Amino acid sequence: MFIKTKNALPILLGIMLFAQNVSFSQNYFITLSKDSIACKQINFFDTNAQGKMIDIEYINQNNETIRLKKKDVPEINLLCQDGAIYLRMPLKIKKTDGYYRYGKRMVKGKIIVDVYDDVQTSYRLKENFNGSYNAQGVMKESREGLYMRHVRMPNGTVYEVSGLKGIKALKYIRKYMFECEQYKKEYFSNPKYQTCTFEEAVSDYNRMCP
After folding, report:
1. Is residue 208 a part of any domain in this protein?
2. Cα–Cα distance measured from residue 110 to residue 125, given in angstroms and rounded to the nearest whole number
3. Cα torsion for 36, 53, 164, 185, to the nearest 10°?
4. Number of independent structural domains in the chain
5. How far is CA 72 from CA 34, 54, 82, 118, 202, in A?
6. Alpha carbons within 13 A on the beta-carbon side of 46
7. Is residue 35 part of a domain?
8. Is there a domain that residue 113 lies in?
9. Dihedral of the CA atoms 146, 151, 152, 155 (nearest 10)?
10. Could you tell me the residue range of the domain that residue 53 belongs to?
């Protein structure tokens, strides 16, 4: 590629501004009051047990490291860290102003999937009826914590698809996805969909049926 000297400076400045904007677009946060804060880098953020963000450190456009704690942290609705999106997910969809957790956007596109996963799985030897531990090494699985999966449809409706309470919503979502003949054909002909995750299936749908 050849660039004439008299045009080199404007082109170079344009490239620098473009690169700068791309960098900022990968790191920013948006408050509940719709303020958008561009950052060169978000070092970390932390929440308390109730889901409220209590600590965040980022580098602003002037290369200053900003650390905010507790009451100084604004009400952040969405945060983008190196392209990964974290956002407030209400514990009850119909009460958006109630308790919440910060989940991660797992699928982008026509159908959006956000997930909060705080479940921890542990294993221990299964106890016998008399309280002794099983000598054959039979293990018992224990799962503790909170898991939420919110699915946003193209019309703006949000469903919670996690656990037994998500079965009804899942049926509606599958019905909507099968309206796309290309995806429906692929789904019933490819054995992959017998074992793949929900997020993988939605990602494939978004790719086939944009």
Report:
1. no
2. 45
3. 30
4. 1
5. 17, 8, 23, 26, 38
6. 8
7. yes
8. no
9. -140
10. 11-82
Torsion of CA 159, 119, 116, 29, to 10 degrees: 170
Q: Count CB neighbours of 61 within 10 A.
A: 12
Cα-based distances in Å from 37 to 10, 20, 58, 73: 27, 14, 10, 13
pLDDT of residue 5: 42
Distance CA 65, CA 57 (A): 7
Question: Are residues 28 and 21 in contact, defined by beta-carbon separation less than 8 angstroms?
Answer: no
Contact 174, 151 (CB under 8 A): no
Give the separation between CA 73 and CA 57, rounded to whole angstroms.
Answer: 10
Residue with tokens 């018992």, as numbered in its chain: 140
87-121 burial, b if ≥16 CB within 10 A, otherwise e? bbbbeeeeeeeeebbbbebbbeebbbbbbbeeeee
Structure-block tokens of residue 111: 């159908």
8 Å CB contact between 109 and 88? no
Series of mean pLDDT values for 10-residue runs along the chain (210 residues): 44 43 70 94 93 95 96 96 95 89 96 93 67 62 85 96 87 96 96 94 97
Q: Give domain status of residue 167, yes or no.
A: no
Q: Which of 42, 82, 33 is nearest to 65 (CA)?
A: 42
